[in-house]
Amino acid sequence: MGNRSEKEAKAEKKMQAQAKVNVEITLAGILPGHGDLITSIVAGTPVKEGEDSDLLITGSRDRTIIVWRLNPAEADSHPNKHYGSARQLLRGHNHFVSDLSLSLDNNFLLSSSWDKTLRLWDIRSGRSTKLFSGHTQEVFTVAFSPDCRQILSAGADKEIKLWNTLAECKYTFSERPHTDWVSRIRYSPSSKNAYIASAGWDGFLKIWTTNFQSKFTFRAHDLFISALSIAPNGAYIATGCKGGKVRIWNILDLSEPLKEFDVNGVVHSISFNPKTQWLAVASDNGLRVYDLLDENDKVIALVELDGKGNEARKDEVRGSKDRRLACTALSWNATGMRLYAAFSDRIVRCYHLTHERKA
Fold first, then answer.
1. For residue 311, how many other CB atoms are within 10 A of its CB?
2. Is-contact 58 65, C-beta < 8 A?
3. What is the pLDDT of residues 329-358, one digit of tens each?
4. Strands 64-70, 108-113: parallel, antiparallel or unpaired by DSSP?
5. Which tens digits make up the pLDDT trace of 85-96?
6. Sign of torsion, CA 295 301 307 312?
7. Quick one: which of 33, 56, 57, 270 is 20 to 30 A from 12 by CA?
8. Which tens digit of pLDDT belongs to each residue from 140-166?
9. Helix/strand/coil (H/E/C) assignment for every residue in 69-102
């Protein structure tokens, strides 16, 4: 990857020396509807910069996908604080839905499944328009390219496949492949910093060029990598593993992690905030938000729910029999001030975040 320039090193140092931020996280509403664990959440892209989208989509182990129409204004008046309503229920997969990827125009959705297939959905009609067959085992992850012309998928057969939107497999990655299940694959969202990142049960993080050549490969975790996210500018990658470690990597220097957090539970999902230097982490121990500008790596927002879905008391001493709800999936909205988080009670909770930075 090469050595970092002096300018980049100074920028990184500045990133760690910024003022602290005070964050308040508030439950704004809920979205019940799935019959099993929710595995993936994607939020819609707004039509105009600075606005928000009323579209949210969730995939579940109940084999269905729900397209939600969000209505925050009515959440306070609804007796159960419902944050929206199910617009469409997409059926077609014969096993768990494992991952989702939404086109930038909000019109098309990709889903991957343990039934060894991918599906392309037309959100406007609610119909599956293409079925992608070619994997020989469960498919765990899927991703649209930034221009939505290419599709990547991977899973238990250890293969990464490239498809076009006609469901034709155009290429199977053969150079330095993963040696165990591939859990996540993502395109960098930045056209100026374009690459592909994949992570697997072998603990390896692999960086590929957009021409599908292996660029860098190394063991990022001792245990299997269960979550992967790329920052909006493509400069940083976050990985999370079964053992609870979350690591931040600088794409220009992958020799060691830039930061490391321990959430003390299996990491299910991680996501960079689209507008601020925050990272949200979903794990067996709930939801955490970190400020990457904080040199002390402080948790700036924390949600832990007891077995009944109520907020756990912060002063409560946990015993061996205490049960907490796991946070299984999450997604930021386009403005970065709302966080959609699914918990193991099969409910999506919608949180509002407000913040101020103090010197």
1. 12
2. yes
3. 999 999 999 999 999 999 999 999 997 766
4. unpaired
5. 999 999 999 999
6. positive
7. 270
8. 999 999 999 999 999 999 999 999 999
9. EECHHHHCCCCCCECEEEEEEEECCCCCEEEEEE
Residue 72 φ then ψ, to 5°: -60, -30
CA neighbor of 342 nearest in space, from 83, 141, 18, 47: 83
68 close to 36: Cβ distance less than 8 angstroms? no
Distance linking the first and last C-alpha atoms of the chain: 35
CA distance 32 to 122: 23
Token code pair at residue 81 = 């604080």
Amino acid present at 118 = L
Whole-number Å distance between alpha carbons of 351 and 359 = 26
Per-residue tokens: 140: 């765990």
The model's pTM: 0.91
